[in-house]
Amino acid sequence: MSDTNPYVRPDVALFLQFLNAVPGPKFWEVPPSEARTMTAAMRDVADAPVGELAVIRDITIPGPAGSIPARLYDKREDRAAGPVMVFYHGGGFVIGSLYTYEPYCAEVARLLDLPVISIDYRLSPEHPFPAPAEDCEAATRWIASSPAELGLKVTGLITSGDSAGGNLTIVTTMALRDKPADVPVLVQHPIYPVVTLDADWPSMREFGTGYLLTDEAMAYFGEGHAATPGDFRAEPLNFDQAGMPPSLVTTASLDPLRDQGIAYVEKLRQSGVRVEHRSAEGTIHGHINIRQAIPSTQQDVEGNIEALKSLLAEVMADA
């Protein structure tokens, strides 16, 4: 534990006080189907409204084990050829859905002024490792091919996701680095990503209780996902990152996953990859989904997207 109390934003402190006092079972104490229902209900009370967009459209993507649902968000009804963000939601590979991430994806589509496509990959434990990664790679390759069903001419990809989706961002980008799709990944934007199965980090010890993502939750996710040690899709931190695209990695200072995210930033730097790291100080894991409960999160999201736009502009200017 730290010798001094960490900085906690006032609105984060209020949210944690409420969260830790809520009676009844926690999501890691119930079956996955109930945990998913609880997570969806949390969106309704804690996240911002979806807001107005020109396009919110469900699409179906062919996958390795059947159809993959996805949802397209765009602030423009008509879109010229250009880049597309592919988003992989978080939730420990066990919970999370198109529904729970709709407010965030809609906001990114507005702020970035590019199409955002959210992928509803198969979830564990019904579909354990590596099913989520297989779906995300297949969906991203399909999007890169600009199929007629998509209705967009895609010239490049921005891969992004949070937590488990941060892992899926990185491993999908690695797969497309090693076997390119029809268009390149221009930038990757993992948000407080899972990059290793190693739990021996100071931030894990300091923030594993009372900061939303608990030791019990991480054990629940790990057991459900059943990742294979030594596989790059489970532990991308332990694999070569040379040749990865410019990257914007964000972490949160009160997050158990903070230190492994910072280690991934260093891995990219050591591999010669252009990388920018943004730390959300005084806030917790999962904050992008609780913009109503933690209003200061809006500034984090806006700052991240501004940084992403700048990085993307650099990449496209150099192309």
The fraction of residues in strands falls at 15-25%
> Would you list the SSEs in sequence order as H and E?
HHEEEHEHEHEHHEHEH
Q: Strand order across the biggest sheet?
A: 1-2-4-3-5-6-7-8
Helix content: 25-40%
- Overall mean confidence score, pLDDT: 97
Biggest sheet descriptor? 8 strands, mixed
List segments where confidence is low: pLDDT < 50 over at least 5 consecutive residues. Answer: none
Report how far the terminal alpha carbons are from each other: 47 Å
Radius of gyration: 18 Å
- Shape call: globular
Alpha-beta classification: alpha/beta
What's the β-strand tally? Answer: 8
Count of DSSP-assigned helices:
9
Task: Map the helices and strands.
Layout (H helix, E strand, L loop, with lengths): L9 H12 L10 H15 L8 E9 L2 E9 L7 E7 L13 H11 L3 E4 L11 H14 L9 E9 L1 H15 L6 E7 L10 H6 L7 H11 L21 E6 L5 H13 L4 E6 L16 H22 L1
Parallel strand pairs: 3-4, 3-5, 5-6, 6-7, 7-8
Antiparallel strand pairs: 1-2, 2-4
Helix pairs in contact: 4-5
